[in-house]
């Protein structure tokens, strides 16, 4: 097999996986209260924050602990908002009130 054939096969596989992940997350119910952090691991329950003020870094540390990701590797992950196609920097502050309804994904 040639290298170009293998690259094309990999690209198609990645596109198929991405498409499956998006349909998997779109079937989740919409967030109604607070801030939710969802994971790719189906067995892992999402994190919920109802009130308070948190930085993205604090939320990522909590998410890393929930997924058993070591402190050495957790800086490779970040929070992503699928609705707005936005990655959040560690210094981003989230002020969560009763009116907040944000659903984020913890991704690499």
From TrEMBL:
* Entry-linked PROSITE patterns: FERM_3 (PS50057)
Chain ranges passing through the membrane: none
Specify the signal sequence span: none
In terms of superkingdom, the source organism counts as Eukaryota
User: Which protein are we looking at?
Assistant: FERM domain-containing protein
Q: Where is the FERM domain?
A: 33-108
């Amino acid at each position: 097999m040639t290298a170009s054939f293998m690259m094309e096969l990999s690209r198609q596989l990645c596109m198929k996986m991405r498409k499956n992940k998006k349909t998997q997350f779109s079937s989740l119910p919409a967030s109604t209260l607070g801030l939710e952090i969802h994971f790719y691991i189906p067995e892992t329950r999402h994190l919920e924050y109802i009130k308070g003020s948190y930085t993205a870094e604090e939320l990522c540390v909590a998410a890393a602990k929930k997924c058993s990701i070591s402190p050495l590797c957790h800086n490779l992950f970040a929070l992503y908002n699928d609705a707005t196609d936005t990655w959040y920097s560690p210094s981003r502050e989230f002020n969560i009130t009763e009116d907040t309804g944000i659903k984020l994904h913890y991704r690499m």
